[in-house]
Amino acid sequence: MHSHSLDRYRHAHDFLGEAHEHNERKTWIVIAICTGMMIAEIVGGALFGSVALIADGLHMSTHAGALLIAALAYTYSRRYASDPRLAFGTGKLGDLAAFTSAIALAMIALLIGYESIERWFNPVPIAFSQAIPIAFVGLGVNLLSAYLLKDDHHHHHHNHAGEDDDHDHHLHHLHEDDHEHGGDNRAFTADHNLRAAFVHVVADAAVSVMVIVGLLTARQFGWNWMDPLMGLVATGVILSWSWTLIRSSGLVLLDATASRDTENKITARLQQHGDLVSDLHVWRLGPGHLAAIVSLVSDDPRQPDYYKQRLADLHGLSHVTIEVTRCEGIHPHSFGHAA
Fold this sequence. Notes:
Layout: H1 20-48, H2 51-79, H3 93-121, H4 128-149, H5 165-168, H6 174-181, H7 183-189, H8 192-221, H9 226-253, H10 260-270, E1 276-286, E2 289-298, H11 304-310, E3 317-326
Helix pairs in contact: 1-2, 1-4, 2-3, 2-8, 3-8, 3-9, 4-8, 6-7, 8-9
C-alpha cells in the first residue's frame, strides 16, 4: 500500500479554536490602542512634568506586554498548527500563554498591594487635578479594549480547513448542550488566551474605577487613606481573578479530564451488546477540541471503526483512539466505573 493511499485514514491535528484568527486580530488591535495610550502618557508626562502621567503610562506597559504574549501565542500557534514535531498540534499554546499571563497579572496585583501599603503608612501629596482625568482616560481605554476582546464568537461556528470533517457538522449542538449541561462544555470550548487578555484589561478598568472612587472621596472629604484602601481592594479582586485563570489553564496543561459529561456519553454509547469500557481518558487539545483514548473488552469484538461510529455525533471529539481486546465470557458486572 502506497503512503499517499493512507491519507484518508490519517487524523488532522489542527486543534485551534473556531474564532482563532478573529481573536488574533482583535488582540493586535487592542495592543495598538494600549501602546498608543502608553506612549502618549509617557511622552506627555515627560513634556509637562507629570509624574502621575508617566506612572500610568508605565502601568499601561505591563498590560500591553501581557497582551503581546496573547497575540504572539495566536500567531505562533496558527503558523505551526501542522508542525509534525508537535504530537497534538498547537491548540494548548493559548492555555500556556494564559497561564503565563495570569502569573504576570498576579505579580501586578501584588505590586499594587505593596504600593498601597507603602502609601498607607507614608502618605504622599496627591495631585488631584492630574490624577483624576488620567484615571478617567485610562478607564475609557480599558472599557474600549474590554469591549473589543469580549468573547463574541463563543456560539458562532465556522468550518476550518484541516479540521476533522467527521466532527465539524456536529458542532451546532454546542449551544443546546451548554444549556443542558452548564459549564462543563463551556470549560473545554473556552479560549483561555482571549480570556486572559480580557481579564487584564478588565482588571485595569477595575483599578481605574477604584482609583477614581478613592481620589474623589479623598478630594471631597480629605480622606487620603481612601486611595491606598481602594488599591488594597483592587489587589484582592485581581488576585482572585488571576487564580481562577491559573487554575483553569493549568488543568488543561496537565491534561485534566476535560468533560465528565462527554465521558459519560462515551461510556453509555460503547457499553452495549456485551462490550465494556475498561479504560477511558478524555482531555482537551484546544478550544472546542477533545481527544479520547478508549480501551474496550468484548467477547465478540468488532473493528474500531464500528465503535467510532457510535460516537460520531458527539461534538468536539476531534481525535479518538480505540483499542479492542477479546475477552471470552466477559460479563457486564466484571467492571465497575470506567477509569
